[in-house]
Amino acid sequence: MDASPTSLFDSYQHDFNQFISTIRDKLDTSEHDNNLGEQQTAVLRRVDMDLDEADEMVSQMEIELQSIPQSLRPKYQTRLRDAKNELSHYKKLAKETRSRLARADLLATPHGRSTPSDDPYASTTDRTRLLAGTALLEDGTKRLQDSYRVALETENQGADILMNLRSQREQIEHARDTLQVADTAIDRAAGTLKRMIRRMYQQRVVTAAIIGILLLLIIVIIWEKLS
C-alpha cells in the first residue's frame, strides 16, 4: 500500500477526474439531444449527483492538502485550484443546460410545434408551462443550495478533524517533552547516587585506614611496654 504523504490526495483527484469525465459526457449528450421531457431531466439529476460527489472529492483534497509537506504543497495547491475552477465551470454549465431545457420546454407544445397565436387556450398553456419552468428552476436552485450546504458541512467537519489532530499532536509533543525532562532528572539522580556511592567507599577506606593506624599504634605501645 502506498504510504506517501500525497497518496490520498492523488486518489481523491483521480476520483474527481472520473466524476468530471462522466459529467462532461452527460452534458455533451444533453447538449446534442433535442428530445425534451423526463429523459433529459433524469440526465440532469444524475449530473447533479455527480457534481455533489465531485464537490466532496474537492473537499477531501482540501483536507489532505494540510498534511502534505511544505516543500510539495505549492504544486498540490495549484492542482486543487484547477480542480475547483473545473468544478465551478461544470456547475455553471449544468445550470445553463437546465435553463436551456426549461426555456425549450416553455416554448414547446405537446406535439413539438409552437403554439398558434389564435389558440384560445394559448395563454393558459403558456402560464402552465411558465409555472412548470419556474418550478424546475426552483428545484435546480434548491439542489445547488443543498450541495453548497453539504460542502459547508464537509468543510466544517474537516476543520474540526484538523483541530482535533492538531490538539492531539500538541498533547503528544507535551508528553514527549515531559518524558525528556523526566529522563534528564533520572540521569541527574543516577549521577548523584554514583557520587554518593563513591564517597561512601572513600569514607570506608579512610575509616579502615584510621582503624589500621590505631591498631598499629596500640601494638607498638604494648611492644614497648613489654620490652
Automatic annotation (TrEMBL):
Entry keywords, A to Z: Coiled coil, Membrane, Protein transport, Transmembrane, Transmembrane helix, Transport
Membrane topology: Single-pass type IV membrane protein
GO molecular function: SNAP receptor activity; SNARE binding
Superkingdom per UniProt: Eukaryota
Record region (Disordered): 106-125
Keyword hit for Transferase: no
GO cellular component term, pick one: cytosol
Ranges annotated as spanning the membrane: 205-223
Family: Belongs to the VTI1 family.
Coiled-coil ranges per UniProt: 44-100
Example of a GO biological process term: macroautophagy
Cited Pfam families: V-SNARE, V-SNARE_C
Record-given protein name: t-SNARE coiled-coil homology domain-containing protein
Biased composition (Polar residues): 112-125
Organism: Amanita thiersii Skay4041
Domain named T-SNARE coiled-coil homology: residues: 129-196
Localization: Membrane
